[in-house]
Amino acid sequence: MEQPNLNYVDELAGDDVEFRGQFIEIIKNEFPLEKEEYIGHITNARIKETADIVHKLKHKFNILGMENSYRLAVAYEMELLKGKQDNGAKFNDVLTTIEAYLKTI
């Protein structure tokens, strides 16, 4: 499993420590809410809404340097729109990995 990192955030922020901190805080605040929303939609079989939140979450994967997970999310989003959930377990693993990482930064 690839690990999240802040390389993109660091590149974007450059020497602006305040911007970097604000960017990280936004991710740390938004991610748990989006994960909770995802779980609610998937639990209640709201497939279109699940695909929508997966679309939103995949951008966090990209920001956290998780290119393979981003591609997984793209595939999963397309699956959901076709009524499938083949990559659901892998997607959940990515969410768990990110959640643990965000607690360390």
From TrEMBL:
The entry's keywords: Kinase, Transferase
Top-level taxon of origin: Bacteria
GO BP: phosphorelay signal transduction system
Cross-referenced InterPro entries: HPT_dom_sf
SUPFAM superfamilies per UniProt: Histidine-containing phosphotransfer domain, HPT domain (SSF47226)
Entry GO MF terms: kinase activity
Protein name in the entry: Histidine kinase
The species this protein was found in: Maribacter hydrothermalis
